[in-house]
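Re: the request from the purification team.
They wanted to know what the chain is likely to look like in 3D before they choose a buffer screen. I agreed to run a prediction and write the result into the notebook, where they can find it.
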Amino acid sequence: MPKPVILCVDDEIAVLESLKAQLKSAFGSEYSYELAENAIDALEMLEEFIEEDIQVLVIVSDWLMPGMKGDELLIRIHQKFPSIVKVMLTGQADEAAIARVKKEANLHSCLYKPWLESELIEIIKSGLKTT
């Protein structure tokens, strides 16, 4: 059986690599850590995981990305997959976007860039407890 997935979405490769390294350091080989550079890729990957019966537990998404912003992405994901834990990562999200995701997508947490690794891990752990 395939490992459950934690999906990270950000348009900056360095951020994605950092997230993956920190998650892997904390959780080891318990999960698969997948990376998407934009919202469209993330949605396509989600569909593929579902088709292959791979469980996606958590999505960590940047807010400010070209094309579709993170708030819209997380709301779309919530409409189709409400059980996925959603975390927004941002250096510049406005409060209205955060409030909208909390209301419309059951946002688990908002993490501000630059984040502390310990804070990221605690947020993911608390999110995993709800799955």
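For the purification team: The helical segments are 13-27, 39-51, 70-80, 95-105, 117-128.
Please add any questions underneath this entry.
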